């Protein structure tokens, strides 16, 4: 067991970051870690940026990750990934879901949405390794746009030692009954994307 | 057995374990989930009251009736309930009264950043502050014991970081069901009727009680010294303790579970063990000033900032700058890109959008209020021009109108806010001969905090059906003659009605009524854009609906986000947006 993991989630309100970070917290607890998690609520749920911190460790005090200490950045939306270079470091793996949601300033032509390579170089500048995940496309393929987050969790699971059964059992217990199968499929799809 | 719980879930669980039988509150981020979770436990009675003062009075009543009661609200809510708080401090509680009050350092979803520890000192009641969910659960029981032993209300303070962060909580045995036998009401006017003669007597009792509580603060196990090595002694409470533990792993700690009254002896004890006392606390130097009054040299606000919440990174940076911990190596310089900001916005399909778009088109000066409709102030709508606190809009517009400005004016207030504190200023408007226009954006629910019922919804937190209070009938009853109820998706009607009301000399009220689309989960197929018809005028993008994206040659609508309300189609001058039939 590694002595700590810090996971930072970034996305847009309504994208399912909370469920994904809940799954990850639960897996941590079931694997014997102390776990803390912190999410931003309130106004930001309404189409604004959301962030969630999950920490696994032998003993975790702060519910927040310290800057420059993130082991994994999980970005549900591309632009949101680019906001976190100060939290990443040379050993950070940034898993980025290929999904764009334009903020109003971009729609009104007052700001420019960054290109993929710009996002990559912003994070690589801090040393992070960027891995693109076609979570949004996979989710649509499975017939439900909301599954992108679980695809991302599947991709993340390939970097960690916890057995697949723990992940799948946790997912089945945390999602609504009628979406169990779909979510497990999305999780497996995420793992497969990493195998390629 | 253990479970991952948020601070709020743990407080609810603690309330259940502690035998709290009555809970009342008004929803407010970050406090909301306490009451919602509590209401699901067996034997609980919970209600959303129209405002925090009413909730406080309900809690006081339950406690006077001999029961254990809990009242929940966010920090600014205690401003509303303060009138009752300051006096229940005098009367005491008979049963137990726990006030769960959530501060919001950094103002994640609040209009100010007040430090409510001052309320404990000002109203002379005990305040506890847990540092994580496990303590949140345990401290409710401690609070009930203190309340019953010392006959005092107890404030349990949380902050956003505690309320909304999650950690592992140990599950306990089900509490033995406390059977509540109706008991005779304790009649004791000299204790509970605060006319001056009685209040003067109770004033002395309050002072005596504070003395006893200060002694208790020295011995309660929720205040304790954690021995460590090194020269530094850290005093901290709440989530600041967690940050400090990461920054000063070697230090001796005084961990405070009780932040008012504060222990003198324990603080002296800590000071005697170390060379330097450091207080790590968010917002005001509340603990620091107390330590200073004891004549102990202390580092606090001179090292750590007093604005916005902490993190261990922030605490470390400032501690290092003051030489208290080793300097951290500067992180490699990262590119700080100019990225487009993503402000929160009205939800896709929100029924408030047509009203704000109409107000913008008519160039109305809008006195606004607190709720998700406050997002009407955000660009591109930008049609709210003030927002002070719950219920302020109607008084504000009356004031603006008395000051005779040139613009058309209106107050915009949500339904839940209207019931919270919009009714008294509505009566004021009539009884002082005002002629303002009030627009109630009525989405039939308290939407901002996650869809809690209010007096207009017709059902309670416990799911019981009750009469629903009609806003337009209420307005007519207090003397408004010009009252209209409109459907916001009929955009021509919205424009005409607002134009008519804001140019009239009569006091008038519009109820723009449509249920919150997130609550009724209404979703129709997304419209499509005919790119041949679209001339890229950009009109539809100015309603600020997030599914709409500028693309080459026109506009696209993201079907995953759109709920198909059709409003964008009604503003397109080229009729290029087609609503599927
Ligand atoms: S129909 Fe138009 S206005 Fe309504 S939710 Fe969809 S994009 Fe927004
Ligand atoms: S309002 Fe109509 S014409 Fe103008 S940009 Fe939008 S779709 Fe095109």
From TrEMBL, chain A:
Domain of life: Bacteria
Presence of keyword Oxidoreductase: yes
Domain Pyruvate/ketoisovalerate oxidoreductase catalytic, residue spans: 13-192
Record-linked InterPro entries: IorB_Oxidoreductase, Pyrv/ketoisovalerate_OxRed_cat, Pyrv_flavodox_OxRed_cen
Keywords, in A-Z order: Oxidoreductase
Stored PANTHER family: INDOLEPYRUVATE OXIDOREDUCTASE SUBUNIT IORB
An MF annotation (GO) of this entry: oxidoreductase activity, acting on the aldehyde or oxo group of donors
Pfam families: POR
Native species: Pelotomaculum isophthalicicum JI
Biological classification of the source: Bacteria, Bacillati, Bacillota, Clostridia, Eubacteriales
Coiled coil: none
Protein name listed in UniProt: Indolepyruvate oxidoreductase subunit beta
Automatic annotation (TrEMBL), chain B:
Chain positions recorded as [4Fe-4S] cluster 1 binding sites: 534, 537, 540, 572
Pfam family, one: TPP_enzyme_C
Any one Gene Ontology molecular-function term assigned to this protein's record: metal ion binding
EC numbers, comma separated: 1.2.7.8
InterPro entries per record: 4Fe4S_Fe-S-bd, 4Fe4S_Fe_S_CS, HACL1-like, IorA, Pyrv_Fd/Flavodoxin_OxRdtase_N, THDP-binding, TPP_enzyme_TPP-bd, Transketo_C/PFOR_II
UniProt entry tagged with the keyword Metal-binding: yes
Record field: catalytic activity: indole-3-pyruvate + 2 oxidized [2Fe-2S]-[ferredoxin] + CoA = (indol-3-yl)acetyl-CoA + 2 reduced [2Fe-2S]-[ferredoxin] + CO2 + H(+)
Ranges where the 4Fe-4S ferredoxin-type domain occurs: 525-545, 553-581
Domain of life of the organism encoding this protein: Bacteria
Keywords: 4Fe-4S, Electron transport, Iron, Iron-sulfur, Metal-binding, Oxidoreductase, Transport
Co-factor(s): [4Fe-4S] cluster
Binding site for [4Fe-4S] cluster 2: 545, 562, 565, 568
Cofactor descriptive note: Binds 2 [4Fe-4S] clusters. In this family the first cluster has a non-standard and varying [4Fe-4S] binding motif CX(2)CX(2)CX(4-5)CP.
Record flagged with keyword Iron: yes
CDD domains cross-referenced by the UniProt entry: TPP_IOR_alpha, TPP_PYR_PFOR_IOR-alpha_like
Biological function: Catalyzes the ferredoxin-dependent oxidative decarboxylation of arylpyruvates.
Subunit note: Heterodimer of the IorA and IorB subunits.
Name of the protein: Indolepyruvate oxidoreductase subunit IorA
Higher taxonomy: Bacteria, Bacillati, Bacillota, Clostridia, Eubacteriales
């Amino acid at each position: 067991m590694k002595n700590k993991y810090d996971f930072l989630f970034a996305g847009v309100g309504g994208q399912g970051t909370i469920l994904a970070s809940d799954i990850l917290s639960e897996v941590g607890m079931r694997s014997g870690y102390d776990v803390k998690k912190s999410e931003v609520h309130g106004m930001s749920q309404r189409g604004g940026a959301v962030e969630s911190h999950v920490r696994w460790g032998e003993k975790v005090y702060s519910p927040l990750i310290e800057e420059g200490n993130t082991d994994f950045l999980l970005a549900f939306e591309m632009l949101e990934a680019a906001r976190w270079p100060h939290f990443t470091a040379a050993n950070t793996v940034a898993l980025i879901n290929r999904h764009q949601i334009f903020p109003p300033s971009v729609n009104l032509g007052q700001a420019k949405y960054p290109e993929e390579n710009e996002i990559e170089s912003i994070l690589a500048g801090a040393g992070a390794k960027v891995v693109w995940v076609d979570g949004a496309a996979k989710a649509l393929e499975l017939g439900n746009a909301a599954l992108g987050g679980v695809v991302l969790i599947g991709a993340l699971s390939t970097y960690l030692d916890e057995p697949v059964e723990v992940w799948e059992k946790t997912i089945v217990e945390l999602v609504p009954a009628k979406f169990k199968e779909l979510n497990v499929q999305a999780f497996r799809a995420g793992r497969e994307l990493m195998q390629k | 057995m253990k479970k991952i719980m948020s601070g709020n879930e743990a407080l609810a669980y603690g309330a259940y374990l502690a035998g709290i039988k009555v809970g009342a509150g008004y929803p407010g981020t970050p406090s909301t989930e306490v009451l919602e979770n509590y209401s699901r436990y067996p034997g609980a009675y919970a209600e959303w009251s129209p405002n925090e003062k009413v909730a406080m009075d309900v809690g006081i009543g339950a406690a006077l009736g001999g029961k254990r009661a809990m009242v929940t609200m966010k920090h600014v809510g205690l401003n509303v309930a303060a009138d009752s708080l300051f006096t229940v401090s005098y009367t005491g509680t008979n049963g137990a009264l726990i006030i769960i009050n959530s501060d919001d350092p950094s103002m994640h979803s609040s209009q100010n950043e007040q430090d409510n520890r001052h309320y404990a000192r000002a109203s002379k009641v005990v305040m506890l502050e847990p540092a994580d969910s496990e303590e949140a659960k345990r401290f409710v029981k401690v609070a009930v014991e203190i309340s019953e032993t010392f006959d005092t209300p107890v404030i349990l303070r949380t902050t956003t970081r505690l309320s909304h962060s999650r950690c592992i909580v140990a599950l306990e045995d089900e509490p033995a069901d406390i059977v509540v036998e109706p008991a005779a009401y304790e009649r004791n006017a000299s204790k509970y009727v605060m006319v001056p003669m009685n209040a003067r007597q109770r004033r002395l009792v309050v002072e005596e009680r504070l003395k006893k509580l200060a002694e208790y603060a020295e011995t309660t196990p929720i205040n304790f010294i954690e021995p460590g090595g090194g020269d530094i002694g850290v005093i901290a409470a709440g989530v600041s303790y967690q940050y400090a533990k990461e920054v000063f792993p070697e230090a001796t700690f005084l961990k405070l579970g009780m932040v008012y009254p504060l222990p003198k002896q324990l603080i002296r004890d800590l000071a005697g063990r170390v060379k330097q006392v450091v207080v790590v606390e968010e917002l005001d130097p509340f603990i620091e000033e107390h330590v200073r009054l004891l004549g102990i040299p202390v580092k606090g606000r001179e090292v750590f900032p007093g604005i916005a919440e902490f993190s261990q990174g922030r605490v470390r940076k400032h501690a290092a700058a003051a030489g208290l911990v080793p300097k951290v190596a500067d992180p490699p310089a990262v590119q700080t890109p100019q990225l487009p900001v993503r402000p929160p916005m009205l939800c896709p399909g929100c029924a408030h959008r047509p009203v704000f778009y109409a107000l913008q088109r008519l160039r109305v000066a809008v006195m606004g209020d607190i709720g998700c409709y406050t997002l009407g102030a955000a660009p591109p709508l930008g049609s709210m021009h003030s927002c002070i606190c719950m219920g302020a809009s109607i008084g504000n517009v009356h004031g603006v109108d008395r000051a005779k400005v040139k613009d058309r004016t209106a107050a915009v207030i949500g339904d839940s806010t209207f019931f919270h504190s919009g009714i008294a200023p509505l009566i004021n408007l009539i009884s002082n001969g005002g002629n303002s226009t009030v627009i109630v954006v009525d989405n039939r629910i308290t939407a901002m905090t996650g869809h809690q019922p209010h007096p207009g919804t017709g059902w309670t937190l416990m799911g019981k059906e009750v009469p629903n209070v009609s806003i337009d009938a209420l307005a007519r009853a207090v003397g408004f003659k010009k009252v209209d109820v409109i459907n916001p998706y009929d955009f021509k009607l919205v424009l005409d009605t607002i134009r008519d009301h804001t140019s009239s000399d009569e006091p008038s009220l519009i109820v723009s009524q449509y249920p919150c689309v997130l609550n009724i989960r209404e979703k129709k197929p997304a419209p499509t854009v005919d790119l041949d018809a679209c001339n890229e005028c950009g009109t539809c993008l100015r309603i600020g609906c997030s599914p709409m994206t500028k693309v080459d040659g026109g506009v696209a609508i993201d079907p995953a986000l759109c709920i198909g309300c059709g409003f964008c189609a009604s503003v397109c001058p080229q009729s290029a947006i087609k609503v599927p039939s």
